[in-house]
Design a protein that fits this description.
With about 280 residues, the chain is mainly beta. It has 3 domains: about 100 residues, Baseplate protein-like domain - beta roll fold (Phage tail proteins - horseshoe like beta roll fold); about 80 residues, Phage tail protein beta-alpha-beta fold (3-Layer(bab) Sandwich); about 90 residues, Beta Barrel (Elongation Factor Tu (Ef-tu), domain 3).
Length: about 280
């Protein structure tokens, strides 16, 4: 596995201040899916100084952004810290951080408002975004955008209203790197990053067919993301084609050679939605 050129940048902080870590040994495991449950990350940092460890432990620092890749790191995760602690192994102090992407918005944000007759799904989405504390609107495509036949009182968790909007439009909703996306099941995000995955571009071994889709492993690639299109070109030509990414795991470890992306993708013909 290619070792040279591996880079990362980890930003930990809050809305007003942050620290940047790019020269300590770390390991990470990022898990993303197209479902509504928050994407998660587990990060371990070796020998972070005591002051910064305390800032994290005391929840003064509560946000994380992780950039990784080869040569020029790119964003692979953004979210809120849900748990943090430090352990010791011989001479090493290891800070363990667990995070959720849009965790607070998913579990705590609520709506209290009344919609007039004729209000559409898009109006509900706009109100949900306004009620969120840490997420903003990303790719939202509502082909049906149904209107309410009569006025309606909204009083409850935003995740329930977003689930209803997604169902109305045969779509999936999720928060991805701090952005609320609602993407119809027959569409992919057109972010100009459509990537051809082959042995020349980092494909590791052969794809594997599973009940959830095609499982593919490659060198860590931050260009790959949920809802995007990937074109597979494998030694096993029966798996060649265009796929929509529905699950993705980035894993890396500066104490060994782990530096890869594993994805699950489904085959089909997909229309493209422009990334705004």
């Amino acid at each position: 596995m290619r070792q040279y050129g591996r880079r990362y940048r980890l930003e930990i902080g809050n809305s007003t201040q942050s620290i940047v870590i790019d020269n300590l040994a770390i390991s990470f495991n990022i898990e993303k899916t197209i479902s509504e449950e928050p994407n998660t990350s587990k990060i371990e940092i070796y020998n972070l100084n005591a002051n910064n460890r305390n800032q994290i432990a005391n929840k003064i620092f509560n946000q994380v952004k992780l950039f990784a890749g080869y040569d020029e790191p790119r964003l692979i995760f953004a979210g809120q810290i849900t748990q943090a602690y430090t352990s010791r192994n011989d001479l090493d102090f290891i800070t363990h951080i667990e995070c959720g992407d849009g965790q607070n918005d998913y579990s705590k944000s609520r709506l209290y408002t009344t919609l007039k007759a004729g209000a559409k799904d898009s109006d509900v989405v706009n109100m949900c975004v306004k009620a969120m504390s840490s997420s903003k609107q990303g790719v939202v495509d509502l082909p049906k955008d149904k209107a309410l036949p009569r006025c309606k009182v909204l009083s409850g968790d935003i995740k329930d209203y977003l689930k209803h909007v997604a169902k109305n439009n045969d779509a999936n909703w999720h928060i991805l790197d701090g952005n609320l996306n609602i993407l119809p099941k027959d569409k992919v995000i057109n972010d100009s990053e459509g990537f051809v995955l082959s042995e020349k571009t980092g494909l590791i071994n052969s794809p594997e067919k599973t009940d959830d889709g095609l499982r593919v492993t490659c060198l860590l690639n931050p260009k790959l993301n949920i809802g995007s299109l990937v074109r597979i070109q494998s030694i096993l030509s029966e798996y060649d084609g265009d796929y929509k990414i529905t699950q993705l795991t980035h894993s890396g470890d500066f104490l060994n050679d782990t530096w890869q992306t594993e994805l699950i993708a489904i085959n089909g013909k997909f229309h493209k939605v422009e990334k705004k």
